[in-house]
């Protein structure tokens, strides 16, 4: 069956509670509406992306029932002391009555100053303190709460005192950063994993769109390498949020395929043969030098739980 003839295929996951290219506003809204009309039912955004108003407009005008759409947004570190105010900001920007999943964008807290400054892991408000305040938000205006860019280390700390388990943990996940330990850990705790940059990008070496393995598997299933990468993640029980303004790619990316067990094993092992690569290490906005050492917004990779003191990857 030719790829363009495959029916749209989506996978629904049940949660435990039941800035890229600069584009004109009209293009963004139309691409989101096209995605929703093509069968997509999950939209991911964040206050830092600056496009919540456009997402809200698309949701309101697409013709798809609001109850059928899952809207995810995230608030930045300078709202860790007042997540309630952050919720008000997002709801107003979106122009919606409620948010389906409201997330802490990073475990890193920041000062509510201009410009915001990162706080140390033990400085108040910590992500644990922010989470306790987030728990009070769950209700008519906020259906569920989650986290983003958390690891086993930060989740263990959070879960020590949490009364609500995060519904979602959104993390960077692709063949060169497959999170083979983090995904099952989250699933064992009832936390659903959502992946960003599943198609690679930002200089990933020989990424999924060009890697020979993905090309070959794509040919075997009569689909694109992108669909192979997305299908690999979804088959692991992970939600994906591919981004595109091209209608053809939007329509193609939703046509998932079922990969054979040996194909899944081979993709899981790609990072062992080619090397590990973390896109977050190369996003300029995340890079900050502290005491002459590189950090992710002020925290070391050990503090984030990405690596141990010897540099071994932990996720």
Automatic annotation (TrEMBL):
The record marks 74 as: Lowers pKa of active site Tyr. It comes from the Eukaryota. Residues 16-270 form the NADP-dependent oxidoreductase domain. The keyword Oxidoreductase applies. The active site is at residue 49. Keywords: NADP, Oxidoreductase. One of its GO terms (molecular function) is oxidoreductase activity, acting on the CH-OH group of donors, NAD or NADP as acceptor. Substrate binds at residue 105. CDD domains: AKR_AKR1-5-like. InterPro entries: AKR, Aldo/ket_reductase_CS, NAD(P)_OxRdtase_dom_sf, NADP_OxRdtase_dom. The keyword tRNA-binding does not apply. Belongs to the aldo/keto reductase family. This is Glycerol 2-dehydrogenase-like protein.
